[in-house]
Amino acid sequence: MATTPLEPQDDQFPPGTIAPQEHADSIAPDDFPEELQNALRDLAREMAGRDKWLRRWEVQKVRKARFFWRGNQRLVWDGQNGQWQIPYQGGQGTNSGSDAADRPKYLDTTNIYQAYGKSVIAALTQNLPSVRFEPDDPKEPLDIQTASAAESLRKIVERNNDMPRKQVELGRLFWTDGRVISYTHFVSDKQKFGMETNPQTGEEAPAGQEVIDFYGVLEGKVPLTLQEFSQLPYVSISVEEDILNLKARYPDVADKITAGATGMGEDQYERIARLSVMQGVSMLTQSGDSLSHLVTHQRIWFRPCAFLAVEDDDIQQQLMEKFPDGCAAVFSGDTFCEARAESMDDCLAICRPLPGDGQDTPSLGDVLISVQERINDLLDIQIEGYEYGIGKTYVDSKIIDTKAIQDQKSQPADYVPVINPNPAVPLAGYFYKEPSYTVAPDMLKHIDDLKGSIAQFLTGAQPAMFGGSMEDQKTASGYAMARDQAMGQMGVIWRPIKSFYAAIMAQAVKCASNNRTKDIVSGSGTSATVIAMPDLKGNIHCFPDTDENFPESWTQKRAVFMQLMQAAALNPAIAQLLLQPDNQYLFKQYMGLDDMKVPGADSRNKQLAEIDELLASEPIPPQPVAGPDGQPVVDPQTGMPQIQPPQSSVPIDPEYDDNALEYQECKAWINSDAGRTAKITKPNGFENVRLHGLAHKAAMLAQQAPPAPSPEMLKALAAVHSHGAAQGAAAMHAAHTAPPQGAPPPGAPPQALAA
Predict the structure, then answer these.
(1) Which 8-state DSSP code applies to residue 601?
(2) 3-state DSSP call for residue 206?
(3) pLDDT tens per residue across span 16-55
(4) What is the DSSP string of 681-703?
(5) Where are the domains of the chain?
(6) H or E segment at 563?
(7) Strands in 2-113 per DSSP E
(8) How far apart are CA 408 and CA 427, in angstroms?
(9) Range list of H helices, 646-741
């Protein structure tokens, strides 16, 4: 078959060159028996058809919530098509210019649903959840090293994925959908990540990295009546992608991928829901042009127990042997694209921020849907009364010339023709004025309650959380206490999110260990972070930090730091604490003045970079001291060559280094968790840092002024001067052996020595 422009060739476009390649170890259709392809396709179709009516209800509910987020809230239920419709949106057979004319003004919305959602999302995204890595075996050096390397890798993964931005999108899905599925995988993509040299072949290849994606309810389907993730026999993720991307990604089956192809099971219904919320429309005819170039791309993961649904025993056995931990099958429409041996526990995680039964648990914004609908209805009545509630005026057309009224231009002191009035009837008797509509005061108060106290109580988004004013609070401390209480209510949501994030980070580390082919380098120069691939081969676990405090914003942290600075003026202990190098760095950070020079901040950063360099090398071993002529210097007393003790591989500059600060930084690192780990896993590097710190200490002591002579030493010097060296020798010996002033006498108890 001739290759068309939509059917790329493997030799012309290697994987990852013109389209992303997700997994290099995937099995292509040509290498996978057709009977196994058919078995996975039938299995995917069967799983996709389960929970048909429960799934439809779930899709309807979430589709409505996503429409509400967009502001499309005037929805009516179309029982014939089984979906929500947006009225006055036009469609087939509708005049293109009639939409604005037919839509009444009072159908505009005041989007309280989105406003409260943004407040909750802002609280949940102040900081990324903090996690920690721990070795499976605390005595195994490789596990300890992997736990340390994983912490550095976490920061790289967060930066590569722009996790603060994705965290905001994750918060939106928690608000509208409730259930969120994360997918952590390794992607090679020249278009996005560029090219790199393959260490195995020496050739240029598309660069890759760990990618974390989030999917909501409309994209992710799971068994709804099961509670725990470990119980799920399958998980399916379906999205719509352009046909050109899919043909480029799967060249082996490019000719089989057809435009507008849908997934299996109930995916046609779900596909319409996904497309409608992406476009902000609901009419089938309005999304028809998208159906022509979008294909449903479906990934479905099976646990080994799912293979028991295959009726053919031989096929079932082959699948069990080929995928002992489960598999992932990929389809574009109905076309089988690839399969791979992969456990869903290694790449997927599910978070439901609110507790509930089964997998269809409430979203954070569910409680506000009915409130928003009632607000819309009441505001409709209010604005309709304002615009259409002005009473009509009735006139007697036999007496009043109504045509003249219609034709004349409205202006002050107009003349209105009156035809043959009855002198016995006053002119006002020919008119009747309807009373104008007035809004009930209790309805206005109810609208304010719905927008305010009721919505705040239901969502937990109290005014203190988003900086709103509170009548019962007059002081800053009162506002702070109210905010802490509001944040405590958010803790119910925050805890499952922290566990969810810990699972994702553990999967990212495992993903890097399984797919990376060379050491990971991030940054440049002395601040570069290098992670050796052998350091990621240990066994570790990732846990959320035990600190249950809700994440505080940068402004709040800065305020606390400034309070500490004020307290330092009265408390020497706090002042000494702030003089620590790391805290001086925080001072510069929280001041927010990049151009401000803080003593010690640069020296701290310099020493941290040197510690990384020292860990990657070994100390200089002992060697003979060379004289000016290059020959070894001999000790005159022993006749042996003088030996220089071991030194660090990074020399110090005694004159220009801040020896006191850099010594303190080395000392702090040696006593830290990272230092104790390096002492076990990298003993030579640890010794290198220790020797470097001692060199700074020696230079620091050398720069200090010599102590003043004691009174005993002055007496001894006077004795030598008066009586000669022989008579003053005893006095000199006594001066050298005498304890310092204020020191306890010999034999004093330990308490006195400590004093």
Answers:
(1) H
(2) strand
(3) 788 888 877 888 898 999 999 999 999 999 998 888 889 9
(4) H-HHHHHHHHHHHHHHHHHHHHH
(5) 29-93+104-126+162-363, 554-703, 706-739
(6) helix 554-568
(7) 76-78, 83-85
(8) 20
(9) 659-670, 673-681, 683-703, 711-737
